[in-house]
Amino acid sequence: MSLFSEVSTTDLVTQIARQITAAIVAGQLKPGERLTELQLSREFGTSRAPVREAARLLESQGLVTFSPRRGFFVRTFNATEMRDIYELRIGLELHAGCLAVERATEADIAGLEAQLSLLYQNQKGSQASLETQMFEDFTFHRMLCKAGGNARLLKVYDELAMEMRAGITLIGKLYDDPQRMAETHEPIMEALKKRDGEELREALRYHIAVARDEVVALFHEIEKGA
Amino acid sequence: MSLFSEVSTTDLVTQIARQITAAIVAGQLKPGERLTELQLSREFGTSRAPVREAARLLESQGLVTFSPRRGFFVRTFNATEMRDIYELRIGLELHAGCLAVERATEADIAGLEAQLSLLYQNQKGSQASLETQMFEDFTFHRMLCKAGGNARLLKVYDELAMEMRAGITLIGKLYDDPQRMAETHEPIMEALKKRDGEELREALRYHIAVARDEVVALFHEIEKGA
DNA sequence: TCAATGACGATTGTCGACAATTGACACTTA
DNA sequence: TAAGTGTCAATTGTCGACAATCGTCATTGA
Question: Which residue intervals define the domain HTH gntR-type in the entry (chains A, B) (predicted)?
Answer without folding.
Answer: 10-77
